[in-house]
Structure formats: C-alpha cells, structure tokens
Amino acid sequence: MPVKDTGRSLQISMAFPSRTTLLSLNQDTVMRLISFLPSPDALRLSMTAHGLHQIAKRRALAEVRLRSTERATLFCKYMLADIMERLQYLRQLEIHLGTFYEERISLAIPGLVGGGAHAPALQSLTLDDAEVMLESGILAAAVRMLTTLEELNLRKYGLLSVSTVRRLSSNLRKLSLTGMLLPRRHVILSMLLCPDPAMLTDDDQASKRWPSIEELELDVACPTDTIPHKAIVQSFPNLQRLHFRVIEAEVTEGEERPTHVPDRVGWPHLDWLTGTPVSLGGFTGPVKCLRFTEGAPEVLHERGVEIVDHLCPVFLSVAAPPESDTRFWTQLSERAQRLRSLRIELLNPGKDASELDEWRVSYQFRVPSPH
C-alpha cells in the first residue's frame, strides 16, 4: 500500500482493479456468452440494458418452443407485429401442441402459417403430432414452400406427412420421421419409399431433394421379414448417419404382403448406424460406428455376430442383458476384424455386471498392430 506525504496530511492510495462488466466486453465476446443462454433467459436479459437489447433479442428469438395453442397464438402475434426486426432471427421452431388441443389447433394455424412464410432464415422445424397439424392444408403448403430448411422433424407421421416431405422445396440435411401411425401403415411405407409413379403428384420433389439428406431418423411398422432395406438405400443415397427403428406389425387381412429382397445393400461409407439386430440385418458396410439398441437377447446372440461381420464397424456399442451368452462375445472377438472399440450398455445391470466385465477383459480383440 503506497503512502504519500503531501505535507499537509498523509494520503493513502490503493489501486483497485477495474470492474469488468458485460457491456465493457467486445461484441463478439458478448455474443458468444449470450449464445449459451436458454431463450427465455436471453429474452429477460434483452430487457436489462439498451446495449444488450439487440444481441440478446437475437438469441431469444433464434430457438423457440411452443407447447400450447395459447403460446403459439401469442408468439405469432408478437413476431408478425414486427417482421423485419423479429422473424429474421428465427432459426429453430418446435411446435408441441398435443392431441389434447386438437380441436383448438386450428386457432393457431393462421399465425403459424404467417410466421413460417415470413421467416427468411428458418433452418429447423419440428412438428409433434404432425399428421394432426398437417390436416390444415395451408400449414402443409407453408412447410412445403420453405426453402431454407436444413432439418425437419415430424413425429406421429402418416400419409399427409409423407406427402409433405416428398414435395419440399428445401434441400434438407437431416430428416426425422418417428412414431409411424399404424392405420394404413403399408400404404404410408409404400408411399414413402417406393411409390407407384401413377400416385405421384406433378410437384413431387423426392428424387431432386432427398439426395441432400445426410442424416435420417426413421421409424417404420412392417413384418420383420419384409423390411425395405433396399428401398431406403435407393431413396436416400447419400446418408452418413441412420437411426432406424422397426415396429413389428403383422400383415392384416386383405393386405398384400410386400416382396422380400434378401440381398444386402448399403452405402459406400456410413459414419453412424443405429438399430436393433433385426432392423439392420439387410444392410452391409462398411460402417464406422454401429450401435445395437435394445432388442430380443436371443436375436442378438443368433444374428449379432453375422450382422457385425457384414457391417464391418470400427466402433461397436451393444445394449445387452447381463446374462449374455459368452459364445457371442467369443465369436465377436474372432470375426470383428476392423473393430477397435467396444462399448457394452447393460440392460437392467445387477450382480451379473461384474461377470460381464470379466468376459470383456478375457476376450480382448486380437487386432493386428499396424505396420
């Protein structure tokens, strides 16, 4: 602490560190910090200081989740009141109105259509209960007309959803179709992957738009011996990541059973493949990362090694019961020539977990050292 004698009195001065505030930082740093805030917090921050208003508002309006018709209506009213200063920031929109509000969804549709039509940079759109929402023709048309979408997620999808996806104007990077509706499921699946040319509309864009899709999350319902592996590869030729789930569905009376094509098919290179052994049985590799999700243990033991042999993964993740057959792991260690990493996810782990650890140590993969 320096002491200075002024002749009149002793003055003691102390150097206090300067206080750094958010407003004293450069704009790039502020934008980076605010980017980690959830949208509601960013909106509150935008009201605290004039210097933060524009940056925080941009973040607050970038990602929006609507979980009721009331919120959807208020949101659209707010955004449409100043299109140039608000809708231009919207990048990600998730709408979860729920079937409970089915009779009231129509109240929010006009605003959602207006918001989507005037959002010049919307990149990601998620519709929960998609089939219910797309019953509104104007909303389906608005989704089809979007040209900036990179990601589209449709949950609880059916024929209307498939028709919308086939007629998109955007070159998607990621498509997610989950929760396939069971009524008329064979028609939905046929329309999605191998439609009759006579059924296609003049504005069908699948052959032009779908090659841009790099990541696909797909749920289908069909008999397990008729899974359309070849149609998936042909419809989405440039995939890098596939999350595939098959729901067992028997052929109903009067339904024509699809012809099963036994040949294995695949892509030149796939970064990530996820599914049960049953759902992935018709694909071939090479695959960089393979993940077996929960399935019947007997199927994993009977077909798992064969599927790994065809897919040739470098990384393998297996969801397995603690009482797994040791022969499966032994055969896997002998036949998985490219495998470099194994992750075991125990289903309902208990006292048998330590025994499985012993198997994992005992059956080390005999990988030749690189020369």
Overview of the structural elements:
The protein is α/β, with parallel strands linked by helices and 371 residues long. It is 37% helix and 18% strand. It contains 16 helices and 13 strands. It has helices at residues 27-34, 39-45, 50-60, 69-81, 83-86, 105-117, 130-133, 137-145, 159-166, 185-193, 206-209, 229-235, 277-280, 297-311, 326-335, 353-362, and strands at residues 3-5, 10-12, 63-66, 92-95, 124-127, 151-155, 174-178, 215-222, 241-248, 270-275, 287-292, 315-320, 341-346. The strands form 2 sheets. The protein has an 11-stranded parallel beta sheet with strand order 3-4-5-6-7-8-9-10-11-12-13. The protein has a two-stranded antiparallel sheet with strand order 1-2. Strand 11, helix 14 (297-311) and strand 12 (315-320) form a beta-alpha-beta unit. Helix 6 packs parallel to helix 8. The longest helix is centred in the last third of the chain and has 15 residues, at 297-311. The radius of gyration is 27 Å and the shape is globular. The protein starts with a strand and ends in a 9-residue tail after the last helix.
Task: Chart the SSEs and their pairings.
Elements: E1 3-5, E2 10-12, H1 27-34, H2 39-45, H3 50-60, E3 63-66, H4 69-81, H5 83-86, E4 92-95, H6 105-117, E5 124-127, H7 130-133, H8 137-145, E6 151-155, H9 159-166, E7 174-178, H10 185-193, H11 206-209, E8 215-222, H12 229-235, E9 241-248, E10 270-275, H13 277-280, E11 287-292, H14 297-311, E12 315-320, H15 326-335, E13 341-346, H16 353-362
Parallel strand pairs: 3-4, 4-5, 5-6, 6-7, 7-8, 8-9, 9-10, 10-11, 11-12, 12-13
Antiparallel strand pairs: 1-2
